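Key result, reporting period 2: structure in, sequence out.
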């Protein structure tokens, strides 16, 4: 059994894999909640992706109480399934790499992969604390992407950095034209995110000759944005964990 851990800025996501199958999935607000999860569990393999170094150390110490396995911590020196073409590899977030790896793995397993060619682009879009878009070109090259504030960050910024704008919820969204201040804020935030994604896809179509797109979305805000997108996407909550598993296998089975 492989325990895959994704330590993010807001939550810690955990997946249990039996062979290639994800059999359990959990999401925790803090590391203290792990104790209940680990009771009566038995893992002989552990893989970790983290963007919070201090939590990584705490988790590794905690894992020693439950497993003799040495955790495989993903960094920029491990072997990947993707070729990385990024000018500042030292600043590329491990979570973005794992998200892209998860998207590439799922695409390669799909029936659509039989048509994979130079006009195909695979995207992983993580709608979490930040909204990140990661782009994979043929035949498996991470070429970069974009980073923007996440939905809640935008709401919080408008509320705390202005004198009179209220804090609102995305559930207040009604249409692109807000009829009051709250609905106007929600429209601005939601449509900024939608436009960010759509503009990226249009660029790939018009400037990079893309014709086939496989788009995976994940993150805490994915379900909030998915209904407003006018193109086909695959919502995969466990996308980063699948990428962790894919990277783990690359380094331990090849």
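The corresponding designed sequence is given below.
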């Amino acid at each position: 059994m492989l325990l895959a851990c994704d330590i993010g800025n807001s939550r810690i996501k955990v997946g249990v894999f039996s062979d290639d199958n994800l059999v359990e999935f959990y999401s925790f607000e803090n590391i203290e909640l792990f104790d209940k999860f680990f009771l009566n569990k038995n893992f002989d393999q552990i893989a970790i992706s983290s963007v919070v170094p201090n939590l990584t150390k705490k988790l590794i110490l905690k894992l020693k109480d439950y497993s003799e396995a040495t955790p495989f911590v993903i960094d920029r020196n491990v072997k990947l399934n993707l070729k990385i073409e990024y000018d500042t590899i030292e600043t590329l977030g491990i979570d973005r790499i794992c998200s892209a790896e998860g998207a590439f793995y799922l695409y390669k397993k799909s029936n659509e992969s039989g048509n994979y060619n130079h006009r195909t682009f695979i995207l992983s879009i993580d709608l979490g604390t930040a909204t990140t878009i990661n782009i994979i070109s043929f035949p498996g090259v991470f070429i970069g992407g974009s980073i923007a504030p996440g939905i809640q960050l935008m709401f919080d910024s408008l509320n705390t950095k202005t004198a009179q704008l209220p804090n609102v919820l995305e559930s207040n969204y009604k249409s692109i034209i807000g009829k009051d201040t709250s609905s106007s804020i929600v429209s601005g935030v939601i449509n900024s995110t939608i436009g960010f994604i759509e503009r990226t896809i249009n660029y790939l179509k018009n400037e990079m000759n893309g014709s086939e797109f496989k788009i995976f979305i994940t993150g805490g805000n994915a379900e909030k944005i998915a209904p407003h997108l006018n193109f086909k996407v695959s919502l995969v909550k466990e996308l980063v964990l699948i990428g962790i598993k894919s990277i783990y296998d690359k380094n331990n089975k090849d």
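The helical segments are 34-38, 53-63, 94-109, 151-160, 181-207, 222-225, 239-252. Residues 2-73 form a domain with the Nucleotidyltransferase; domain 5 fold (CATH 3.30.420.40). This case is discussed further under Risks and Mitigation.
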